[in-house]
C-alpha cells in the first residue's frame, strides 16, 4: 500500500469535507444502502490527519452564496417576516394592522423637523434653497421652452380627462367630490402618473399581493405608502395655502404672483391662483418610489424606472402650465423625507446571532423585540411646580 503523501492527504481532506456536507444536507433523508465492498473507504484517522495538514485547500465555490437567490423563510404562522436583501443585511417586518398607518401620521409629522433639519443635512438644505432660487429666475424661460417643445412634438398642452364617475361631496363650503377620471391624450397620460388614483392602485397591489402570499414586507410597503403619501399631502397643502403662488396657466405676470397667507375663502374661490408651490404630484410620486425602493433594495431597477416616470410627469406639468420648475425641489424633498421616516419606523434590522452556539438557540438570527405603537410609548411622571403638583405625559418622537 502506498504511503499517504501530503497531496493524497489533501485529497482525502476534501473528500471528508464533501461527505460531511452531504450528511448535513440530507440529515433527515432515509438511510441509504451500505456501500459495496469494492467502494472507496477512507479511514477516520486518515481524515483527521488530512484535516490537520496546514496546507490550504482551494475554495472552488467560495462565491456560491453570491449567486444563490434570496430565500425568505416562513415563520410558524406561515408568514414571511424576515428578508435578507444583501449579505449581512436582514430586515424584519411585522404584519401591519388594517389602517394603522393613519394613526402613524401624527408621529411622522412630529419626526419630520428633526429628520429634515439635522446638522448633516445643512448642505442639502442649502442646495435645495439655491436650486429653487436659480429655477425661479429661469421659470418663465423654462415654461416657454417646454411648451414650444410640446408643440413641435404634437403634445396637447391642455390637460384633459374623461370622467368615468362623479359623486358630489361637501364639507361646509368646501367642494370635495369623489370622482374618477382617465386621461384622453398623451400629455395628460404623463400627468396622470402623479394622480392619487395611480398611487392608490400601487398601494392596493402590494396589499393584495401581501395578503395572498402572506408576505409581511408587501403588506408593510402598502401601509407605508398610505402613511407617507398622506403625510406628504398634509405638509404640501399647508405650504400651498401659506405661499399662494399662481399656476403658470393663470399667471398675470412672468413667473406668477405670490399671494402670501390667502384666506381660506379666497383660496377656495379660485384654487389655481394660489396652489402652485410646492408640487404635490411630484412630492407623492417621490414618496411612492422611495418607499418601494427602500423596502426592495435588491431590485435595482425601481429607482431608475421611478425617476424616469417622474421626469415625464415633471415635463407634462410644465407643458400644461400647472407648475413652475421652481415648485419641484422642495416638493420632491418633502416626499422623500416622509418616505424615509415611514420606512424607518416600519421595519427592524435583524442582528447577527451571538457567536456562542448556546446563546444563538439554533436560529442564526436575533429576532427584534415587538414594539408598541408610538402613541403607547408615552411616559407618565409626577411633577411639582410651585404650589402645583400633578403628573405629566411625555412622548419622545
From TrEMBL:
Domain Phosphatidic acid phosphatase type 2/haloperoxidase intervals: 225-346
Record key words, sorted: Signal
Classification via InterPro entries: PAP2/HPO (IPR000326), PAP2/HPO_sf (IPR036938)
UniProt entry tagged with the keyword Translocase: no
Pfam families membership: PAP2
Position of the signal peptide: 1-29
UniProt name for this protein: Phosphatase PAP2 family protein
Organism: Hymenobacter ruricola
Amino acid at each position: 500500500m502506498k504511503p499517504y503523501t501530503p497531496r493524497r492527504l489533501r485529497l482525502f481532506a476534501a473528500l471528508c469535507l464533501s461527505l460531511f456536507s452531504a450528511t448535513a444536507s440530507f440529515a433527515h433523508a432515509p438511510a441509504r444502502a451500505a456501500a459495496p465492498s469494492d467502494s472507496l473507504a477512507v479511514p477516520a484517522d486518515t481524515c483527521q490527519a488530512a484535516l490537520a495538514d496546514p496546507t490550504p485547500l482551494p475554495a472552488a465555490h467560495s462565491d456560491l452564496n453570491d449567486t444563490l437567490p434570496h430565500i425568505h423563510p416562513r415563520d410558524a404562522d406561515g408568514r414571511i417576516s424576515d428578508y435578507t436583501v444583501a449579505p449581512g443585511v436582514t430586515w424584519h417586518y411585522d404584519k401591519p394592522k388594517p389602517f394603522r398607518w393613519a394613526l402613524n401620521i401624527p408621529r411622522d409629522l412630529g419626526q419630520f423637523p428633526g429628520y429634515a433639519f439635522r446638522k448633516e443635512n445643512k448642505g442639502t438644505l442649502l442646495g435645495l434653497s439655491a436650486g429653487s432660487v436659480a429655477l425661479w429666475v429661469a421659470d418663465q424661460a423654462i415654461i416657454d421652452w417646454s411648451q414650444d417643445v410640446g408643440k413641435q412634438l404634437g403634445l396637447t398642452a391642455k390637460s384633459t380627462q374623461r370622467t368615468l364617475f362623479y359623486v358630489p361631496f361637501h364639507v361646509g363650503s368646501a367642494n370635495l367630490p369623489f370622482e374618477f377620471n382617465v386621461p384622453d391624450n398623451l400629455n395628460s397620460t404623463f400627468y396622470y402618473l402623479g394622480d392619487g388614483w395611480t398611487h392608490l392602485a400601487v398601494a392596493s397591489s402590494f396589499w393584495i399581493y401581501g395578503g395572498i402570499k402572506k408576505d409581511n414586507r408587501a403588506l408593510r410597503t402598502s401601509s407605508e405608502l398610505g402613511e407617507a403619501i398622506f403625510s406628504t399631502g398634509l405638509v404640501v397643502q399647508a405650504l400651498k395655502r401659506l405661499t399662494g403662488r399662481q399656476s403658470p396657466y393663470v399667471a398675470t405676470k412672468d413667473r406668477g404672483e405670490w399671494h402670501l397667507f390667502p384666506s381660506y375663502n379666497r383660496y377656495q374661490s379660485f384654487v389655481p391662483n394660489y396652489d402652485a408651490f410646492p408640487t404635490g404630484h411630484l412630492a407623492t410620486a417621490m414618496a411612492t418610489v422611495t418607499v418601494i425602493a427602500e423596502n426592495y433594495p435588491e431590485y435595482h431597477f425601481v429607482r431608475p424606472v421611478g425617476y424616469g416616470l417622474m421626469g415625464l410627469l415633471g415635463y407634462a406639468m410644465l407643458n400644461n402650465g400647472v407648475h413652475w420648475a421652481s415648485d419641484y425641489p422642495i416638493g420632491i424633498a418633502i416626499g422623500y423625507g416622509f418616505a424615509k421616516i415611514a420606512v424607518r419606523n416600519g421595519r427592524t434590522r435583524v442582528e447577527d446571532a451571538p457567536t456562542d452556539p448556546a446563546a444563538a438557540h439554533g436560529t442564526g438570527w436575533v429576532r427584534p423585540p415587538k414594539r408598541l405603537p408610538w402613541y403607547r410609548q408615552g411616559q407618565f411622571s409626577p411633577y411639582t411646580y410651585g404650589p402645583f403638583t400633578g403628573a405629566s405625559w411625555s412622548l419622545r418622537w
